[in-house]
Design goal:
The structure holds two protein chains of two kinds.
Chain A lengths: L1 H16 L12 H20 L1 H5 L8 H26 L5 H10 L15 H22 L5 H29 L3 H20 L11 H6 L7 H19 L9 E3 L4 E3 L5 H11 L3 H14 L1 H23 L1
Helix pairs in contact in A: 2-4, 4-7, 6-7, 6-8, 6-10
Chain B lengths: L8 E7 L7 E7 L3 H12 L7 E6 L11 H5 L23
Antiparallel strand pairs in B: 1-2, 1-3
Classes of the chains: A mainly alpha, B alpha+beta.
């Protein structure tokens, strides 16, 4: 028995070492499974909760074109949530349990979605910065060691490009518009920049889960590496818009070949994670409320399926 | 009287390379799932085509019907804005 366990673990480590992928039926360390469930479910919940700040603007989109785009984008976020829930379920946890963990607070979602979308430019900033940061993270996760998670990431990355581009295009329109419109864009930039940097999580030295995740190739790059990548590619995009990044310490460092940037307010980050962000309560309450209000839809679908099954059985007997 | 039972049909999905999606390869007949898996291996991975195989009872697969394909997929026909190329981003803007 003990020999078998050792062998399974060797096979697993060997696969990880050779950059092969782990599939649902493969043996895996219990902590690998748990880490994946935590990360993938958090990712799935983020997609679904992330529909709320944008959904807030569907009825107030300034044109039919923008409304259709926003609807399509939010629909995609729901779809991304579904890809990820399915990937997570291959690890042996049920959808019901995943939702229960979200509702009890046992599972988290990205703290960025606890900020409100206050003006129309926020929809642009969410697409450009929030989805931009998510893309940097998700491109890296396409090479995660767990097969179903990797495949979900490949699909999601293909779709995210539209999300980011529509956001940038929206901001470009505002920045080329009136003084007031440009000011709206700058205001959104000011409020979304720092929370977007926080999306990558704590600095590597302070990250509780980083070491195992890197060892098992669940994550292929660290929080700090990904954050730097995002900053490096975003600065020029902000300059083109004519927007100022709200960080006086942001400066190109020739020697490093990267931008240096200011200190992130981790107190704010931890405070939002603990539940004290501007919208934590509202986001979760809304999810619970809608879930409960729609119980009748699930009941009706079950009743209809049972009725049809019964009719089919009757036809067979006859 | 000979027993002419050909066994149920199973659909075979093969993963060509570690991490890639399972793709439909074809089907086999088999009396149970173990036989289905062995038959699938014998028929569809003779030249090391795969790293893993799924077999699924053909009766468990629900498929869209060819006659209705037009109306079935119609809802996405007029939604060009779901594609990134719908958005005009100036050439000077990189990495987006």
């Amino acid at each position: 028995m003990e020999n078998n366990t050792v062998n399974f673990e060797n096979v697993f480590n060997d696969k990880i070492g050779k950059n092969e992928y782990i599939e649902p039926k493969d043996w895996m360390p219990e902590k690998y499974r748990k880490t994946l469930i935590r990360q993938i479910s958090q990712h799935a919940h983020s997609e679904v909760i992330g529909m709320q700040p944008e959904g807030n603007w569907i009825t107030r989109a300034p044109s039919l074109r923008r409304k259709a785009i926003l609807l399509a984008k939010i629909q995609d976020e729901g779809g991304h949530g579904l890809y990820l829930y399915s990937a997570c379920e291959t690890l042996g946890i049920s959808r019901e349990e995943l939702i229960r963990q979200l509702h009890t607070g046992a599972a988290k979602y990205s703290s960025i979605f606890n900020y409100p979308a206050l003006n129309w430019a926020d929809i642009g900033a969410i697409g450009w910065l929030v989805d931009g940061a998510a893309i940097v993270n998700q491109v890296s996760l396409q090479r995660t060691s767990y097969g179903p998670y990797s495949r979900a990431m490949v699909r999601i990355c293909k779709e995210e490009s539209f999300h980011q581009r529509q956001g940038y295009e929206l901001l470009l329109e505002l920045c080329r518009g009136s003084k007031e419109q440009k000011a709206m864009a700058q205001d959104a930039m000011n409020r979304w920049w720092w929370p977007s940097l926080m999306m990558f999580g704590p600095h590597d030295a302070d990250s509780a889960h980083s070491a195992d995740s890197i060892k098992w190739k669940i994550k292929r790059e660290t929080n700090d590496e990904l954050r730097q990548k995002f900053i490096d590619k975003t600065v020029a995009q902000a300059e083109f818009l004519g927007l100022t990044i709200p960080d006086p310490d942001l400066k190109w460092n020739e020697a490093r070949g990267h931008y240096d940037f200011g200190k992130i307010d981790w107190e704010e980050f931890n405070n939002v994670i603990k539940g004290n962000g501007p919208c934590n309560k509202q986001r979760l309450e809304h999810h619970v409320k809608v879930h409960n209000e729609n119980a009748w839809v699930r009941e009706a679908a079950n009743a209809y399926a049972a009725k049809k099954a019964k009719a089919a059985k009757g036809a067979l007997v006859a | 009287m000979s027993n002419d039972n050909q066994f149920p049909l199973w659909e075979v999905f093969v993963q060509a390379k570690s991490g890639t999606p399972y793709k439909h390869a074809g089907s086999v007949h088999a009396a149970d799932k173990e036989m289905a898996l062995m038959n699938a291996r014998d028929l569809y991975s003779r030249r090391n085509e795969g790293t893993a195989i799924w077999v699924v009872p053909a009766s468990a697969i629900v498929a869209s019907s060819p006659e209705e394909i037009g109306s079935f997929f119609e809802p996405s026909n007029d939604k060009a804005y779901r594609h990134p190329t719908f958005y005009e981003i100036p050439a000077e803007v990189k990495h987006i």
